[in-house]
Amino acid sequence: MDAADVCVVVLAAGEGRRLRPLTLQTPKALCPVGNVPLLDRAFDLVGLLGFDGPDRVAVNAWSHATQIVTHVAGRAHVSVETAERPLGSAGGLAALRDWIDGRHVLVANADAYLQGGSVAPLVDAWDGRHVRMLGVPAGDRTPEFGAYRFAGVSLLPAYLLGNLEAAPTDLVRAIWRPAESSGALVVVDYRGTYIDSGTPADYLAANLHAARLAPSGCLIDPDAEVSGSVFDSVVGPDAVVAGDIRRTVVWPGSVVAAAERLTDAIRFGTHGTVDARTAATASRPTS
Question: pLDDT at residue 284 above 60?
Answer without folding.
Answer: no
